[in-house]
Amino acid sequence: MPTTPEILETAAGATLATALLAGGAIYAAIAPTSRIFGSALSAPNNPAKERAQIALTFDDGPNPRWTPQLLDILAKHNVHATFFLIGKYASTQRDIVRRTHEAGHLIGNHSWTHPNLARTSRARTRQELIDTTNELEQITGSRVRYFRPPFGYRRPATFNIARELGLIPVTWNAIANDWMGKPADYITARCTRLINQNQSHGHATNLVLHDGSHLSLEADRSCTISAADQLINHFSATHRFVTLNEWQS
User: Does the pTM exceed 0.85?
Assistant: First the structure.
């Protein structure tokens, strides 16, 4: 018969194993660099003999007030970006979606209602992606190829469903935290640090900013728009801005 210390040791080991499994599952579901639940496009290594690369990506739009101003800034700098759009917003802001596409920006799928896909059923996940792709393709007349899960959250089926629908899953390796209400200078400083950090490791940067919010169609994104302008001004001389399709052969 096991002694009391042996019983306690076994129980402690089981508790630790359970905690490790839970922690591993959380990491797999949330961490943008995790490949446990499937691979995704993040960012490649920078070209050896060319300028370092930055992909500006904007989530949670279109935003009727701030997305047009962002498009003006991008046009001023002749920079193209990638926009991951929420389907239910796109359906009400078709002119902005069309303008974004016609300006040469890449448009991606960010689901219809921005749910936590780590918790949704396979059927709902599939419908969220189908409805959004159909809406965006109807508006733009072009194929939608890229999908970013809301919050970056997923479960094992999420990326499999996306690929079954012809979508390439996308995560990131830098995020602005611009939804936290921080001023533009804070956002710019944070992004600059992350871009430089990626470059020091030889990596390009796939940067997430937000021109919209899943909580409100007309969220204030003035600080993000200002920060985007600052970042482009700062890095234009040393980096090349790309859209995600340039990282796909």
Answer: yes
